Amino acid sequence: MIKIENLHASIDGKEILKGLNLEVKAGEIHAIMGPNGAGKSTLASVLAGREEYEITAGSVDFDGQDLLELSTEDRAREGLFLAFQYPVEIPGVSNVNFLRTALNEIREYKGQEQISAKEFMVRVREKSAIVELDAKLASRSVNEGFSGGEKKRNEIFQMAMLEPKLAILDETDSGLDIDALRIVANGVNTLKSSKNATIIITHYQRLLDYIVPDFVHVLYDGRIVKSGPKELALELEEKGYDWIKAEVDAQ
Amino acid sequence: MSEKINIMNDTIQQNKLAVFTEGLSLSNLAYSNDLKQKALNILNTLDFPTTRQEDWKYTRVGRIASIKANQTAHNSQIDLSSIRTESKLLFVFENGHFRSDLSSSDMPKGVVIKALSRCSEEELSLVGSLVNIENQVFTAMNSAFATDGIYIQIQPNEIITPSIHVLHILSGDNTASFTRNLLVCSDFAQAHIIQEYITQEASSSINNVVTEIIVGVNAHFTIDKIQHEEQGNFAVLTEQVDQKKDSTFTINTITLDGTLVRNNLNIAVNGTNCTSNLNGAYLLKNNQHVDNHTLVDHKVANCLSNELYKGVIYDKATAVFNGKVFVRKDAQKINAFQSNGNVLMSDDASVNSKPELEIYADDVKCSHGSTTGQLDEEAIFYLRARGLSEKAARNLMVSAFISDVLDKIENQTVLEKVQLIIQQKFAWEF
Fold it and tell me: What is the pLDDT of residue B6?
């Protein structure tokens, strides 16, 4: 689904990603872990198309397309979804209103008919139930006055509405209490299929108790330095990152 | 009968006002001759304001001064279906002259609506009683040269349910239209009025409008003022409001077009327990200049005023907001809230926002705020990351921004009409 090769990216002249390789296939869940400053959020930002980052080398193939050539909105329309680490509050713009616009722009891009009002509302009801998001929250201004947990659930709700091929969850678990974490994880698990894939960027192993990854990768100093099965996450939780840093620095 | 006016002035070569008024005819309307004469005398001593005057600091009227003013009445072909009004009470004026052919003749019970030209001296006894013309070029000109306008009197205790729609059309080249309106909402009465300003094949023309408004005891009066005169034309409008006790007055000023628009909205809150709502939205592009000057004068205690003005400014356009709130010495327990917000959509757009609070009472709750900025780029990125184009994202955000004000318009027909005009002019979606 997505193949990242030798990706180098910098911001303000400082190189953050230094030759990152990653391949994710349909039906898979990948977890990317790593210490602070390793470049986890940069990876999410670069894939979503944030313009502050300069790509200095490498390629990203997204289902046969050169992802780096696409605008942010076209990436979304092609089926890439980023759940933001810090969801933005947008006063006055209603959640459902903007989702209808988004959905219709995606459909137009694909040459499909606009969604009918009825069909849309059915979908809102069905998908908000998955993340136990109050229907009232769904129609309020985007993230305005939402609690931290509600914001993250709203991200998963949007993901459910847009049905992306590849979802990147950027620290979606940070700051969540156990109930919210369970709800978010349940949402992700419910939406999982053989046709989509998920990249979970996280600090903590805790989320992986609820969402079982097929692969765990350690991102350190701008590269993926270690990959392994889900047990790697437990090992990281137990031993921290120092042993990996030592391993890398020794090379 | 009309007589030609020659304003004598020693410096007639330099005095642009004298040149401007040279060919204008003294008003034939039945209001007091003293007012007309006083206005002429005042004009004799004045010239057009310059930016050295505090009130006109940010607004240059040179382009108005250079109009070769004529007061020609036109009878343009107007397609009223484009006005999108549901009102059966439609009254049309063109260049400050009554278009009886386009206006309703039905009159509901409890209200008197007619052109000022058809009013008696007695009916017009209140004309000039509210508005200040001392040192005021535009209100003085209007008082001297007014050709016509609407007279509406809601009778006491009457609740008029259909909206009364007054359409002011500006047409032709170098037209100087002087429109005078008198609106009286008597004690315990209730009504909704739409004052709409448009152009029809006009250029370098100005509509100079003065509206005096009396809101009676416990009356509820709402005005939606919709301005969309085409660019290349000018408008200077003054509303002077007198609020009696226990009354509620609401005015929504929506400015969507016009090269130079100046609104003077002055509310004298003369009675206790009043509510005054002033909402304004202005959407500017190209080289437009829109200046909203408002004044709420709290003279007595226990009143509430809410003021919310918001603007979106594109291209090289300029907006001016000057909101003054006076709370007089004995006007205790006043709640006065004022807020002005602006979004600049280009590097060349500009705003001059000046909130002014003068409070002489000590037991009041007053606030004002003014914000000017650009759209939140992080929010735009967020919307784009969900599949919206950059343009759609920006449109969604500005329409949300301005909807704060538009949502104050209670009349659905008016709201939809305003949204439609905005969609056509700015391609926003609501």
Answer: 53
In chain B, the residue whose alpha carbon lies closest to the alpha carbon of A77 is B387
B243 SS3 class: strand
Number of other residues whose CB lies within 10 A of the CB of residue B132: 13
CB-CB under 8 Å, B404 with A98: no
Give dist(CA B52, CA B58) in Å, integer: 9
User: Which helix (DSSP H) or strand (DSSP E) does residue B265 occupy?
Assistant: strand B260-269
Of the listed ranges A5-9, A208-212, B332-336, the least confidently predicted one is A208-212
d(CA B281, CA B263) in angstroms, rounded, equals 12
**CB distance from B356 to chain A under 8 Å?**
no
Number of C-beta neighbours around residue A108 at 10 A: 14
CB contact at 8 A, B407 and A97: no
Q: Are B390 and B384 in contact (CB under 8 A)?
A: yes
- Considering only CB atoms, which chain A residues are within 8 Å of B376? 88, 90
What would the mean pLDDT of A133-141 be, rounded to a whole number?
A: 82
pTM, entire model: 0.87
Per residue in B369-400, pLDDT tens?
999 999 999 999 999 999 999 999 999 999 99
Q: What's the rounded Cα separation, in Å, for the pair B21 and B19?
A: 6
Q: Return the residue of A nearest to B393 by Cα.
A: A98
pLDDT for the residue numbered B7 = 52
Mean pLDDT of A160-178: 93
Which regions of chain B are under pLDDT 70? 1-14, 86
CB contact under 8 A, B401 and A92: yes
Of B88, B91, B146, B143, the residue nearest B113 (C-alpha): B91
CA distance B190 to B280: 22
Contact B349, B314 (CB under 8 A): yes
Mean pLDDT of A40-51: 95
Q: Is the CB of residue A98 less than 8 Å away from at least one CB of chain B?
A: yes
Architecture of domain A2-250 in this structure: 3-Layer(aba) Sandwich (3.40)
pLDDT at B332: 96
Which ipTM score applies to this complex?
0.95
CA distance B211 to A202: 64
Give the residue on A whose Cα is nearest the Cα of B392.
A101
Instruction: Give me the pLDDT at residue B251, please.
Output: 98
B379 in A contact zone (CB under 8 Å): yes
The reply to whether residue B384 touches residue A162, judged by beta carbons under 8 angstroms, is no
Which chain A residues contact residue B404 at CB under 8 A?
92
Instruction: Read off the pLDDT of each residue in A156-167 and give the average, rounded to a whole number.
Output: 95
Q: CB-CB: which of B385, B390, B429 is closest to A76?
A: B385
User: B385, A106: Cβ pair inside 8 Å?
Assistant: no
Per residue in B295-308, pLDDT tens? 999 999 999 999 99
